[in-house]
Amino acid sequence: MERTILNTLRAMDTSDGAGVRLKRALGSTPAVRLDPFLMLDAFSSDNPEDYIAGFPPHPHRGFETVTYLVEGHMRHRDHLGNEGDLKQGGVQWMTAGRGIIHEEMPQQKDGLLRGFQLWINLPAAEKMQPAGYRDVADHEMPRLDLASGGQVKAIAGEVTIAGQTLSAPLKGGKTDPLYLDVILRPDETLTVPVLSGYNAFMYLFEGRVSVAEATLESDHLATFTDGDSVTLVAGKKGARLLLLAGKPLGEPIAQYGPFVMNTQDEINQALRDYRDGTLTAEASRL
Ligand code: MN
C-alpha cells in the first residue's frame, strides 16, 4: 500500500549552540516528534555570522545524533579525545549513550554552510551504553543514479530501488533507521519502499514535491501514513529532500535539553551527574 502525506509542518526559525541560526523541522515542541526521531535541525547560510560561533562544549545523554554536512566543513571533538573532520557530503554518527561532552565547530570563515542534525532516540536498555562515534566520508556512501536523471544517496540503512540495493555503511540498532538524500530532476518520479509499521517523514529543502494529491513546499516536513512504499513526484524545478524512516520504540520520553531519558528521575540523575562531573564514564579531555 502506498503511503500518503499525513501532516505537513513548516520548519521553525530558531537558534542554538552559541547562536547558530537554524530551522527546526522536528522537535520544536514535544508534540512535534516522530518516534524514534526526536529532532531534525536544518542549517543553511552563506553568512558566517549565522554559524561561525558553532556549538562549544556541551553534553548529551540517552540518544544518538547524526550530523550530515551537505556543504562546508565542521570539526568535532569530544571528551574521549576523538577528533573528526566533517567535510562536504560527510556524516557523523554519535551515540551519546551514558554521556558525551563534545563541541561542533564550523571550520570555514566564509562560504555556504549547509547541513542537518538529526536526533534518534535509544531504547531504555541502551541509553546508558558507552559513548561512541563514527565518521563516514561522502565517497563511502552508496548512490543510485536514476534513469531519469536524479540520484539517491544512502546515509544510513538499506533500501532496494528499481532492483538495486543501496546499503549504507551506517546501520542503526533497534530503531533501524533509513536515511536517504534524494535529488529529483523536474517532474521526475521515484518510488521508495519503506517498511510498513515504521514511522516515516521527508524534509524538503529544494524545489517542490508531490505525494498523491498533496504538494510540499521547500523548508517543510511531511509525515506519512503507514504503508510499504512512497511515491515522490518532483515539481517543475526538481526537488531535493531527506527521506527518513525508523522503527518506533513506543517508550515514554523525558527530555531536558540535551538529555533524553524515559523518566523524570533519570533526567534529574543526568543533571546531577553533569554537575558532579560524572555524566561521562571517562574524565573529559576537552
Ligand atoms: Mn551536540
Keyword list:
single chain; 286 residues; mainly beta; Jelly Rolls; nine-stranded antiparallel beta sheet; seven-stranded antiparallel beta sheet; 1 helix; 5% helix; 53% strand; globular; binds manganese (II) ion
Shape: globular
How many β-strand runs?
24
Outline the biggest β-sheet: 9 strands, antiparallel
User: Which structural class best describes the helix and strand composition?
Assistant: mainly beta
Measured between the Cα atoms of the first and last residue, the distance is 50 Å
Mean pLDDT value: 95
How many helices does DSSP assign?
1
Strand content: over 45%
CATH superfamily grouping: Jelly Rolls
Q: Layout of SSEs?
A:
Layout: E1 5-10, E2 12-16, E3 20-26, E4 37-45, E5 55-60, E6 63-71, E7 74-78, E8 83-86, E9 91-95, E10 100-106, E11 113-121, E12 132-136, E13 143-145, E14 151-156, E15 158-161, E16 164-167, E17 178-184, E18 189-193, E19 199-211, E20 214-216, E21 220-224, E22 229-246, E23 254-256, E24 259-261, H1 264-276
Antiparallel strand pairs: 1-21, 2-3, 3-4, 4-11, 5-10, 6-9, 6-11, 7-8, 7-10, 9-12, 13-14, 14-17, 15-16, 17-22, 18-22, 19-20, 19-21, 19-22, 23-24
